[in-house]
Amino acid sequence: QVQLVESGGGLVQAGGSLRLSCAASASVFSFDTMGWYRQAPGNQREWVATIPSGGRINYADSVKGRFAISRDNAKNTVYLQMNSLKPEDTGVYYCNAVRMVGGLRNYWGQGTQVTVSS
Questions:
Q1: What is the largest CA-CA distance in the chain?
Q2: I need a surface site. Which of 55, 68, 85, 89 has the fewest CB within 10 A?
Q3: pLDDT (tens digit, 9 = 90+) per residue, 19-36?
């Protein structure tokens, strides 16, 4: 069973930075895509950024230019560097991993809270 463990959330003032980490129990090469999603109170979970095993990194328009997703293959870890944070970035951030071979499978972490104060 694949496990994804997020860390790095916290409380930060607007304009500040945080770096989230997602440690996978399997090699990141075993996933077709890894990414981050977030969910604010009362809202649906929304996509933030994706880093595929091959291909282009993509970002939601709301975070483009402020967030950066990256991957450390040796540590089986995906990061989300978040700069110039805004109060509307507040929410629970979830790590996601997708495998397509043998049937689509989605894996999720437990989430880490990010709170941006104004």
A1: 46
A2: 55
A3: 999 999 999 889 999 999
